[in-house]
Write a structure and sequence with these properties.
alpha/beta, five-stranded antiparallel β-sheet, 13 helices, 21 strands, globular, binds NADPH dihydro-nicotinamide-adenine-dinucleotide phosphate
Length: about 450
Amino acid sequence: MIYDLFVIGGGSGGVRASRLAAIEGLKVGLAEGWDIGGTCVNRGCIPKKLYSYASHFNEEVEIMNSFGWSVNQLDFDWKALVKNKKKELTRLNGIYNSLLKNAGVEVFNSWATFLSKNSIELSDGTIIKSKKFLIAVGGEPIVPNIKGSEFIITSDEAFDLESLPSSILIMGGGYIAVEFASIFNGLGVETTISVRGDKVLRGFDEECVNFLVNEMKKKGIKFIFNNSPTAISHSKVSNNKEFNVQFKNDTYQFSKVMAAIGRKPMIKNLGVDKAGIDLTSNKSIIVDDFFQTSNKKIYAIGDVIDKVQLTPVAINEAIILIKNLTKNQCSTFKYKNIPTAIFSNPNMATVGMSEESALEKFKEIDVYVSEFKPLKLTLSKSNEKVFIKLIVDCETEKVIGLHYIGNDAAEIVQGFSVAIVSGLKKRDFDNTIGIHPSSAEEIVTLREKRKKL
Ligand code: NDP
């Protein structure tokens, strides 16, 4: 039998694409060697957010006491969290499988390898032919090539550790490093981040990143800047610090070392050479504006292409691709104003431009900032603050960037991103009445421009 579309990879992009294509009447097959749902459901966004919730509760003791509750200590059971997380992920895997089945997608629990430009082989030896293929295999964590790298864990293993380490070093300063540092720190693990450069979250608004780093330091996370481990070995020091980690001039001991230095396309055994697919220098699949690879019968979306590695982006790429293929359209994805959040503690969420990129693009900008202690914390000894930044293009008066650091940042910025994506002006924000008392009302009551330097 020849499929109309065969999808390789059952993550966020692959599942959405195959379902939509099958609903449109195409004969669709999908191969996934791991659990359906991919990184996001099984080893990424979903378990990360659950663990992030888990890590915030320990701060509630102090806050509850300030409201008159008597709570002395909360006991945390790591094994219970891991077990409950697994149960929830099994439920989600089931939902994904039934969605695919009900849409008429034939699912193969198998890895796939291209044999030629129009055929693949599954792990059990089945040969599949299809009129078109879609590669949505996603990515995998990069492990640094240093002595002792076999001791390093990545986000793939971190969710299922046998027990919580007493201390951890997290290498890298991207989303995953910052989020896991907050999770481990919140769960009581002595946490250190090491970054090769002088900042974490490169590309985000620098003032906001500095604010976030300061808040994370206040919560006890340590940062090592401009330095990277060069070797890891077993430590003779007891107190559970199992590993010696060698830096440029110093050696430190940690119970665990985790790498979060980026992710690479998962194309190792895909046979891209046999399929006639061109790659970038970092081994991402090259696609045109319509997700077509150098082999016109093969498409690619999601983390395996060199665009934006975010679940909602992969899902929207899938929607556009399948509409184009089934409805004779020529739509493209606009990789602009994509709201995003870092589920650190506190959370940071952002939409639009940083101050640095706005200054490069626009002749003149206005910047509005607000920093305050949220009402919920005013009775407690907590010194955590909320930080809000709004950036306006003076010529058009449009709000071109919003950055929020504080509780529920993602929920707040998701709502406001409609205004920014729609090109609303500062005066539209000013004309909106705030909901009082809330932290988000500050976004519509910002009146004082920051003095220009
Ligand atoms: P990122 O690309 O976000 O960050 C990589 C980090 O590792 C940077 O700080 C980088 O430093 C550093 N680094 C890179 N190479 C080396 C090296 N050889 N040695 C030391 N440090 C190095 O990667 P992540 O792994 O954190 O995340 C991968 C992707 O997953 C992200 O791009 C994001 O899109 C997605 N993601 C999204 C989440 C969300 O939406 N909340 C959550 C988690 C992941 P430098 O700045 O110097 O390059």
